[in-house]
Amino acid sequence: MEQYLNLCRYIKENGIIKSDRTGTGTKSVFGYQMRFDLSKGFPLLTTKKTAFRLVVSELLWFIKGDTNVKTLIEANNHIWDEWAFEKWVKSESYDGPDMTNFGVRAANDEEFKLVVDKQMEIFHSKIISDDQFADEFGDLGPVYGKQWRSWPGKDGETIDQLQNLIEQLKTNPDSRRHIITAWNPAEVDEMALPPCHSFMQFYVANGKLSCQLYQRSADVFLGVPFNIASYALFTHLIAKECNLEVGEFVHTLGDAHIYLNHMEQVDTQLNRTPRQLPTLVLNSQKDSIFEFEVEDISIEGYDPYPRIKAPIAV
């Protein structure tokens, strides 16, 4: 994963300070590309522990076309909680303590963080126990899964981009149209978070499947390690269904940034030496990407450094 560490170094050395919608501030570069040969190991970051189970459950959530955090919360995956929680605390239904800029405030105020944690516990409980509440505040709008599996077409019809992709890879592997897009201008304003990893293209050569992702916005410390692992896994799953080997994952970044309150954490990573990459293990009894469950996907030989905590900017 030296490619990832080189990205961190490049931003630190060449990035410019920019403001952002969260008010946190970033150091940013525009236009950067990394390439990962998936035959040489699964690209899961070793310079800090990355929760692979969360990568798996989120990707399967996308694949199933789901857009409600209830499914993730029930799987003990909380990486989308803040955006649904924000929807609740900004609504007229919320009558608790002021949660304005709760992410940034909690990162700098331990006492306030306890208040946020308490409200988040209430939110989780309501999401799980109250279907009406989950429908209203758990749904994130037409985010990734909706666009991948139910892109709105003509006359009320929907387009299953993922199913179409797989069929085309099987029947016309040399096509230059193996594309899935999550960026839908007609619906982007309805999404809790407009798609950061917004456009992907697949490519078949010499019996190997490669994927290139264009990511418009890349939170390099917290998000990008997850994105690398997620799309590497996605490539493996599609390759398995299409009876192909894996080639490369090519990660093209638009605005690649390190939040200013993540700089110390990045420095900690840069002082660590990458370790051997783990191996991905898929249930050999499952053939279709639509059949996989979390327990069907695992890694072996993962020996990372300890996790490094950092606040998320919402």
UniProtKB/TrEMBL annotation:
It comes from the Bacteria. GO terms for cellular component: cytosol. InterPro entries: Thymidate_synth/dCMP_Mease (IPR045097), Thymidate_synth/dCMP_Mease_dom (IPR023451), Thymidate_synth/dCMP_Mease_sf (IPR036926), Thymidylate_synthase (IPR000398), Thymidylate_synthase_AS (IPR020940). GO terms for biological process: dTMP biosynthetic process; dTTP biosynthetic process; methylation. Keywords: Cytoplasm, Methyltransferase, Nucleotide biosynthesis, Transferase. It comes from Psychrobacillus vulpis. HAMAP family: Thymidy_synth_bact (MF_00008). This is Thymidylate synthase. Catalyzes the reductive methylation of 2'-deoxyuridine-5'-monophosphate (dUMP) to 2'-deoxythymidine-5'-monophosphate (dTMP) while utilizing 5,10-methylenetetrahydrofolate (mTHF) as the methyl donor and reductant in the reaction, yielding dihydrofolate (DHF) as a by-product. This enzymatic reaction provides an intracellular de novo source of dTMP, an essential precursor for DNA biosynthesis. The active site is at residue 196. It catalyses: dUMP + (6R)-5,10-methylene-5,6,7,8-tetrahydrofolate = 7,8-dihydrofolate + dTMP. CDD domains: TS_Pyrimidine_HMase. It is found in: Cytoplasm. PROSITE patterns: THYMIDYLATE_SYNTHASE. Homodimer. DUMP binds at residues 21, 176-177, 216-219, 227, 257-259. Belongs to the thymidylate synthase family. Bacterial-type ThyA subfamily. Its EC number is 2.1.1.45. (6R)-5,10-methylene-5,6,7,8-tetrahydrofolate binds at residues 219, 313. Coiled coil: none annotated. GO terms for molecular function: thymidylate synthase activity. The keyword Ligase does not apply. Pfam families: Thymidylat_synt. Pathway: Pyrimidine metabolism; dTTP biosynthesis. Residues 2-314 form the Thymidylate synthase/dCMP hydroxymethylase domain. The keyword Transferase applies.
